[in-house]
Write a structure and sequence with these properties.
Elements lengths: L2 E7 L5 E8 L8 H5 L6 E4 L6 H10 L2 E4 L13 H4 L3 H10 L3 H4 L6 H17 L1
Parallel strand pairs: 3-4
Antiparallel strand pairs: 1-2
Amino acid sequence: MTTKILALTDALGNLVRFVLLPGHRFDTVGVAPLIDGIGFDGLIADKAFDSNQIVADLNERGAKVVISQHPRRKAPLPLDSEIYKWRHLIENFFCKLKEFKRIAMRADKTDQSFSAIIHLAAAVINSR
């Protein structure tokens, strides 16, 4: 069985919060617990997070929506391509996270131990 890691980083690419999901779940399921209780001015995400519910929630918060549009969307939303380029920060974070073999191989048996090693790895990454 696989595990998905949904992560939220700040503008510098540092981990703010993450959520573990089963590998067969849609990514959009984990967004609500990921952003709940956190204030932000904008969210940059890829097309896996393109859903009307997420866009409506972000608009309600007054946050700028910078989400790559899924090709099947009937009415595409405007995308600020210059801001979207900053999405590489989350990709860089995941590359650094996967340098830790236990995370890349999903070696831990329980969600609790897997979460603990992600927190530990994020602390090491931030200390570099």
